[in-house]
Specification:
By secondary structure, the protein is of the alpha+beta class. Helix content is 19%, strand content 34%.
Length: 284
């Protein structure tokens, strides 16, 4: 779906909708009924891409992984083309450019909260590029104004001061506990067993307090679906980071955390998988 031609076609001819399969198939009301009626028309597809008309008629679909990925991309392009042909003439929408990441990694929201950009990627051989996953998972971590107040106290103390952030604040970084963005593999906030992040003021210069951070997250997610329902997925990540605070305004300027992650899926697929994480934010 990241192919340029696929993106262009979707933007100009389709109304894209992303659905969580596990939620929509049990949803009550019109949304769930619409999806279930759509699935009945294509029982060969467990999940995937459906091209559906406004009355609910499935025009085309694709739900199989194909190797190499170049062939998979071609299959998606063909699926879109077939759907358009069966639907009939469609007036192309005018392309509008926008910042898709405007609420992620930069700036402060109106309510004083921030959205930290988070990235996770398999690193099976450490820094050796041969062990890198093909692409990074992307997410965001929301810290409230109150969460930030526990960081910006750096403006009130001298260099060398250390303190630990509250567990409830550190727990919000639980999205770093999986190399995948699939919520079914991710330790949820209420499944976090360890959440520690210690902050130290390394120095204060020209009205800026420079921070260093060290910590750890760990937890276990219980798989929710048969045939592996009840099995545990474990993960832990060791964190180090830096940040800075304006001592005059008591405002966070920037924050970066990097993590060394270890992940074990449920048995029998529970071999150690190494991954890396980055969480970053800046005011401007």
């Amino acid at each position: 779906m990241s192919d340029e031609l696929v993106i262009a076609s979707v933007c100009r001819h389709f109304v894209p909708v992303a659905l969580n399969l596990y939620e929509i198939r049990k949803a009550k009301g019109r949304d769930g009924d619409f999806f279930r009626a759509m699935q009945k028309q294509r029982p060969d597809l467990y999940q995937g891409v459906y091209i559906v008309g406004p009355t609910g008629n499935v025009l085309s679909g694709h739900g199989q992984m194909i190797e190499p990925k170049s062939k998979w991309t071609t299959a998606i392009r063909d699926t879109l083309a077939v759907g358009l042909e069966r639907f009939g003439p469609v007036k192309a929408r005018e392309e509008l450019r926008s910042d898709a990441q405007r609420d992620r990694g930069v700036g402060v929201r109106d309510d004083g909260s921030i959205a930290i950009a988070a990235y996770m990627r398999y690193m099976m051989l450490g820094l050796d590029r041969r062990g890198l996953g093909e692409q990074a998972a992307i997410d965001r971590i929301i810290l409230t104004r109150d969460d930030l107040s526990k960081l910006v106290i750096a403006s009130e103390f001298p260099a060398g001061t250390r303190w630990k952030l509250p567990v409830e604040t550190v727990t919000k970084f639980h999205k770093l506990l999986s190399p995948s963005s699939d919520a079914n593999t991710l330790t949820r906030a209420d499944e976090v067993a360890e959440a520690v992040l210690e902050v130290q003021i390394d120095k204060i210069a020209d009205g800026v307090a420079y921070l260093s951070m060290r910590g750890k997250l760990a937890g276990a997610h219980t798989w929710q679906f048969d045939p592996h329902k009840g099995k545990k997925i474990r993960a832990e990540v060791t964190l180090i980071g830096v940040g800075s605070v304006d001592t005059k305004s008591s405002q966070l300027i920037e924050l970066t955390l990097v993590g060394d992650g270890r992940y074990w899926s449920f048995p029998p697929h529970d071999g150690l998988m190494k991954y890396g994480t980055v969480a970053e934010w800046r005011r401007k």
